[in-house]
């Protein structure tokens, strides 16, 4: 069901500062920057590698305000790893299959994600403390 690790999401307070750090330290390049109002984030995707199912990325996340998922995470836990996102080829089928195992779906239906993707989250309490995202890439690169 899982094709690859699509991205790791990292919560930060200052997106530009963290982008500069990742570029200087790991030589990675920003391939996309977006504001996602629905998710309450300003985010950047930094390219790591290409695979058969699509690329893999580091997603840096700055909250749009304190009353957002990443804003609450920063207040409780500080900066650090926020979620792991797995690539899937059929997100609706994956949600139906995973929901059938009893894992709570935070999104019953896919939402808009970075770079034209469809995304959905699984409850961290049902995945061993890991906020888990499913990502279906767009049919062809935008
Ligand atoms: C909260 N908890 C986490 C967590 N965030 N555990 C692991 N990883 C995280 N990131 C724990 C928290 O410690 C609590 O545990 C419990 O879950 C409830 O937390 P809460 O304080 O009530 O926090 P809320 O109200 O923010 O709810 C948490 C959830 C929420 C996960 C339900 O953040 C959510 O719906 N997230 C999905 C959307 C999202 O994260 N969007 C931003 C990324 P205790 O203390 O009770 O044990 S957007 C993105 O990735 C995009 C656009 C993309 O990839 O394209
Ligand atoms: Co993400």
UniProtKB/TrEMBL annotation:
Q: Output the superkingdom of the source species.
A: Bacteria
**Gene3D superfamilies xref list:** 2,3-Dihydroxybiphenyl 1,2-Dioxygenase, domain 1 (3.10.180.10)
CDD domains annotated for this entry? MMCE (cd07249)
Q: Which Pfam families is this protein grouped with?
A: Glyoxalase_4
By its UniProt entry, which PANTHER family does this protein fall under? METHYLMALONYL-COA EPIMERASE, METHYLMALONYL-COA EPIMERASE, MITOCHONDRIAL
- Locate the VOC domain: which residues? 4-137
* Keywords in alphabetical order: Metal-binding
Q: Report whether Lyase shows up as a keyword of the record.
A: no
Q: What is this protein called?
A: Methylmalonyl-CoA epimerase
Sorted alphabetically, the Gene Ontology BP terms of this entry are: L-methylmalonyl-CoA metabolic process
Family affiliation = Belongs to the methylmalonyl-CoA epimerase family.
